Amino acid sequence: MGPLRSVVLAGGGTGGHIYPLLAFADALRRHFPQIRITTLGSPKGMENQLIPAAGYDLRSIPAFQLPRSLNLDLLRTPDRMYRSAHAAGEIIDEVQAEVVVGFGGYVSVPAYLAAWRRELPIVIHEVNVPPGVANRMGMKFTKRVAVGFPHQLEQAEALRNARLVGVPLRTGITHMDRPALRPQALYHFGLRPDLPVLFVSGGSSGARTINLAVAAAAKRLAHAGIQVLHVQGGRNDPFEVPNDLPVPYVVVPYLSDMQLGYAAADLMLCRGGAITVAETTALGMPAIYVPYPFSNQEQRRNALPVVEAGGGLLVDNSELTPDWIERNIVPLARDRQRLAQMGTAAAGYGRRDGDEQLLRFVLEAVS
Ligand SMILES: CC(=O)N[C@H]1[C@@H](OP(=O)(O)OP(=O)(O)OC[C@H]2O[C@@H](n3ccc(=O)[nH]c3=O)[C@H](O)[C@@H]2O)O[C@H](CO)[C@@H](O)[C@@H]1O
């Protein structure tokens, strides 16, 4: 077949849906420099900051919230769904899209619906178990479903026949040479080269429990000679850290250059969002995962295979206290050998070619 000329990518809400979309857009552009890439988002999601900043065309379509269960009778779906699908269809027609690729988030549903009505190929990329509500609806319109992780094939009936492609990750992360970037990253954040760095991130929105627990442990970490680089997260309140600590504790609201954080880090403390897990493992980053407790155990499922492979530790949200941090993180952060072993195990589970594998799958869909 000839080169792809025009695609519509749909996805939005939080970073977990948007970063894979952007990484895939970059792969399309690398392979087909003349391609027209149009992204569909909702008016309020993080896509409104992240997608224009990455230089892609973002079209907003009217928002509507999906019910959280699937016994959705399409005939009784509210008018707003049809308005959104109509808007998505007009954009698909205008750009003469050859395929719609959806990454989840409720903005994907009107795109799937509009593409189905036009008999356009639809490809869904799903990273969670259970699959998100929007993508489960999309699966009524296409059998071309790609997943990020092996456990998804075993743990979700709806994903049993999906194609395992991995997660499209930003090349700034997948092509990164961590040791080479480390001095620059430490300098950038004002961190010392002679002491370990704990990198704390609660995902794209931030995590209140993690933020408060680590901030409350600031003195104990500092007196043990552990530096902290702490990302507050896009939607979280500021927290207090003592300002008379003997070693650096750096708080940043959000990192657009996430690779700098990974480069500075010896150990990560994070939630178990799917893209975060894909990134830590692609980089061979030892991590302590604190899954978000309120979303169908999806984050626990993401982190468990890495932890079972020896690539990190798992701690319940309710158990992450300053005492736990002192007892577990302090000795680990100072044990270079154990960190190296964990890093190697994490890397064994990680993969870096999700963007290329998804592209191959999409090309099959349009051929
Ligand atoms: C609470 C919740 O429901 N979270 C879900 C959400 O997580 P969330 O939106 O937090 O997504 P992930 O943890 O999967 O990914 C976060 C992304 O944001 C990036 N990042 C983060 C902080 C920062 O300062 N800069 C930055 O670039 C990370 O590098 C990563 O690429 O979507 C994921 C993927 O569907 C799901 O698995 C999570 O369960």
Automatic annotation (TrEMBL):
Q: Which GO terms describe its molecular function?
A: glycosyltransferase activity
Q: What pathway or pathways are given for this protein in its record?
A: Cell wall biogenesis; peptidoglycan biosynthesis
Q: How does it sit in the membrane?
A: Peripheral membrane protein
Reactions it catalyzes: di-trans,octa-cis-undecaprenyl diphospho-N-acetyl-alpha-D-muramoyl-L-alanyl-D-glutamyl-meso-2,6-diaminopimeloyl-D-alanyl-D-alanine + UDP-N-acetyl-alpha-D-glucosamine = di-trans,octa-cis-undecaprenyl diphospho-[N-acetyl-alpha-D-glucosaminyl-(1->4)]-N-acetyl-alpha-D-muramoyl-L-alanyl-D-glutamyl-meso-2,6-diaminopimeloyl-D-alanyl-D-alanine + UDP + H(+)
Q: What is its main location?
A: membrane
The segment(s) forming the Glycosyl transferase family 28 C-terminal domain are 197-357
Q: Name one Pfam family in it.
A: Glyco_transf_28
User: Could you identify this protein by its name?
Assistant: UDP-N-acetylglucosamine--N-acetylmuramyl-(pentapeptide) pyrophosphoryl-undecaprenol N-acetylglucosamine transferase
Which species does this protein come from?
Actinoplanes flavus
Its gene? murG
